[in-house]
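We both want to read discrete structure tokens more fluently, so let's practise on a single case. Once you have written the record down, we can walk along the chain together.
***
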Amino acid sequence: MKRLRQILLTSMIMTFAASSAFAVTSFTKSEEGNIQSYAHPSLFTDSTVYSSNNGTYMVGGQIKKTDSYLGFKNKSNVFADAWSKNVLKLIEDSSAKATGGEFNPKLPVLRSELAVILAEGFNLALPKNSKQYSDVSSEYWASDWIYKALGSGLMIGYPSNQFKPDQPVTKAEVFAVLAQIIDVPYTAGGSAPIYKGTTIKYIPQWAYNCTKEVVASNVLPYVSDQNRIINDEYLSKEQVAELVGYLIDSVKYSKEIGLSQEAPDTIKNRQSYVLKMKMLDRVDARHSTMGDTFSARTTEAVEIAGVTYPAGSIVKGEVTQVQRPGLRDNAGFIKVKFTEIKNGSTSVKLPSEISEAEATCLDTWTGSPNILARTAGAPLTAAGRILGVAGRGVGEIVDVSGNRVEELGDNLSNVLVETLTLHPGSGVKSLGGSVATVGKGVYDYAKVVTSGVFGILYELGDEVVYLAYPAASNKSSLNPNEKLEVRF
């Protein structure tokens, strides 16, 4: 027994000593899933993603610079994407709190949920006097939104004095509601509506024209799950939120779709704002983190909520999501929201609905920060980057070494237990697992070291590029003196 204890103790010491030299990939859980993280993510992985749970109103996506413009909408409609996600989160939080049920955005949209999407999307007002429905009490989680939708005329109740808030809404009914808002030329008639060369199923004859109008608006191609649009009787909560988000953007900002004369006054009279500003700070995909704040200065006066903010007013913003650059996604991206405009002691919180932005890129050599400013800041930036890469590498080694110690210890323990219980075959198998664990540790340790060296060289090279030719550095960035036009 004494001999056995000595063997076990010696094995544990050797296991720890051997495994402390090895590293393996660690995983961290985020909203984006399991993210593989190395000392410098751009060598072995696409990117490392850090994301935020707060409202993400995207101005960014993957920013691509051209000679004169930064296009924030070149990848996707950032407003519709952000808006739809946020209204779904609002429904989830509100309904789950009241009912305790689970929220699945892939399930058919309910009448109560459609009312929320419409009321939020088109800023519908709560009427002073409204007919009350027996199944929508003041305590019902969506009562205010429902009565807003009813007051606007976009939705109606049933003759039985019920609204039926938990009843699914067919896609034909969704199209009929949206057709009341938009004014798009289409070919009326008795033929069934066609989308992408295919007849849309489950559209009764009374809904032919309104469905054709929605198809003619050209917003359907932007909605997820195209097969479901054609073949299912119901649209999902997610699809309806996306559809309304794209309609808001097309009606209100791009003006690609006209408003119907029958649209509620709250929709027709809704005012939009344009903020023209110049960045004061730099935010970029390589260095910014969630929660970083930044400032810009308006270049033209703007009136918001009855108050005029002159040119020179300060606009505050916040970084809400960052995806680090990688080899295959070499630009990465940032997502930001603008939160406040301020002039002296007067300030106002900006609406959350930011639709699009466009930034002119100033001449490379005259843009700020100038060459002297960049040179002065380079030593500190370079030192910070090197220490950052080294720190992540050391932390990775410590983390993954612990994982390998545990795995190797288990394997060696199994070797002893299985052999001493007269199962030598299993013991040999566990011994092979121990050797494989050591081999994987060596491989992963080499990856961390190689990645760290690559990372240091990459960061230093990027700093040199920023000194000599800043327009080519960190293409997913907003730099000082770049001009933005933000509409909301």
